[in-house]
Amino acid sequence: MMERRTFVAQLAGLAAVGYTGRLGAELASVAGKPTPITIYKSSSCECCARWVDHVKASGFAPVVHDDEEMEALKDEMGVPKGVRSCHTGVVDKYLIEGHVPASDIRRLLKEKPKTAGLAVPGMPPRTYGMAPPGVEVGGYEVVAFQLDGVTRIFARH
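User: That's the sequence. What structure does it adopt?
Assistant: Structure tokens below.
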């Protein structure tokens, strides 16, 4: 006969193994396992490299592809022209366009809304990657977008 303590420990282990649903990405981050994100950017873009550093420091594991034909790549991926910026990421099933804060990407992965992705259209000067050292980040919006170009405000910073 199994001791109660052993049974409860095994049951908890099975529950933990089976629990990968909605919060899987968040749990991986909490457990110290970085969340994978694929990023496409120009090799010469310094703000893109600084944004990659931002997401990496925030618990993501970026796989970076330098691509000088970014507009063609965005066309292939279906990124609407009205939300485009300098780099494009893919995390889980979502597109990430431009200087989206890592905290908003985490929220996206936690909430799993029905959207194609998040974007910070253009290149606002006080975003992660764009803001000079010592300048506070803020004064911009993050939008959730659909492939047909419809957007809604996701966050204000």
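The chain has five helices and seven strands.
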